[in-house]
Write a structure and sequence with these properties.
three-stranded antiparallel β-sheet; about 120 residues; 8 strands; 1 helix; mainly beta; Immunoglobulin-like; about 5% helix; five-stranded mixed β-sheet; binds calcium ion
Length: about 120
Amino acid sequence: MKAVLAGLVLMGACWVGDDDDSAANSWAPTIESSFPASTTQELSIDGSLRFAAAGMDVDSLHLDYAWLVDGALEAGGSSEDGVFDTSWDLLWTAKRSGERIQVAFEVDDGDFVETLTWPVDVE
Ligand SMILES: [Ca+2]
């Protein structure tokens, strides 16, 4: 039984059963729209790229979200109404020049994390 539950959790959306706990968190946040497409992006010298993500959570009000580059936090925020709509600008820096970096967006409801990633080639 534990293995079955673990498998459902790994799928990102898990119904944990009737336990009369109205605060139960059974569903991961959903990213309903995002920009740009998750194909490799190109960042030109002195340029910038805007990334955006929006969505909601059906059973959580408090959400934390973050923008990361290669796993390091660049910006973040939180929502108290179960809805998020955020954007962030990646700026060209000499330090990143010539690198392939990974931009990630993460939204966390305390139990489940949804993630989007974009590879970016920096000129
Ligand atoms: Ca949730």
